[in-house]
Design a protein that fits this description.
There is one protein chain. The chain is built from two helices and twelve strands. The chain has a five-stranded mixed barrel. The radius of gyration is 17 Å and the shape is globular. The relative contact order is 0.23.
């Protein structure tokens, strides 16, 4: 995807509500830092019931994002449309080899809900922090990002806080990652250019 705009921001998330981690782990996951990205991409798939949109960028990279409730008229977006989307990508709290227990339960919701940062527009964003066992599909060490394919076939790109973490994994490795799901706060169709205008 073509990244047109990049702005660092934070998203404060709720305390753990599902009781899936010990108190020590709860403190570890009590905060989730996110990065706001603006991209122009083609819509590959839409799941209106779950409010998920899969986007494909001009270089062929794919990202599935959850569309927040503040985005209205999602039903007007169709497969094949070119859209501009603002979405938060999660920053991974961990990226390591999974345990046998994690392999048996490859998708776990650790935190549910959150609010948009005070520094951004009042989007009222709500997302989830999840632990996912996934396959490494792409590594971009200069930007500290990794693209993963999860157990449900969804692709997600996350940023790691410590660049040293990306020195170990290789393409095709199976890893466990804890991060917030990608959350779109704006999805708009790209208006076709008028004839004769460049």
């Amino acid at each position: 995807m073509k990244i047109e705009h990049l702005r660092l921001s934070t998203l404060a998330v709720c305390a753990l509500t599902l009781g899936l981690a010990s108190p020590t782990r709860a403190e570890e996951h009590a905060r989730s830092f996110e990065q706001l990205v603006t991209v122009t991409a083609r819509v590959e798939k839409i799941d209106l019931q779950n409010r998920e949109v899969t986007l494909k960028g001009p270089l062929g990279n794919v990202e599935t994002v959850i569309v927040g409730p503040e985005v209205t008229r999602l039903n007007e977006i169709k497969v094949g449309d070119e859209v501009t989307a603002d979405y938060y990508i999660g920053i991974a709290a961990e990226l390591r080899a999974p345990t046998e227990e994690e392999k048996a339960q490859p998708f776990v919701v650790l935190e549910a809900g959150g609010k948009a940062p005070k520094t951004s527009a009042p989007a009222g964003a709500a997302g989830r922090t999840v632990r996912v066992v996934a396959t490494v599909e792409g590594l971009d060490r200069p930007s500290q990002t990794v693209t993963l394919k999860g157990p449900m076939g969804r692709y997600v790109t996350v940023r790691v806080e410590d660049p040293a973490v990306l020195m170990k994994p290789r393409l095709g490795d199976t890893v466990v990652v804890t991060a917030a799901e990608a959350l779109a706060v704006s999805v708009e169709k790209v208006k076709p250019k008028a004839a004769g205008k460049k």
